[in-house]
Amino acid sequence: MRYARLVLPILFIALALAAFSFVPKFIRIDEVVCVSQFGPCNLGDKLSGLAGKSLDEVKKEVNNVLSQEDSIADFSIQFKIPGTLEVAVIEKKPKFALKDSSADLLALVDKEGKVLKIVEESSLPRVTTAGRLPNVGERVKEESFFALNILYNLAASYAVVAGRIENNALVVNLPQGYKVVFPLSGDKDVLLGALRLLIERLNEGGKDSRINGGVTEIDLRFKNPVLK
Question: What is the top-level taxon of the source organism (predicted)?
Answer without folding.
Answer: Bacteria
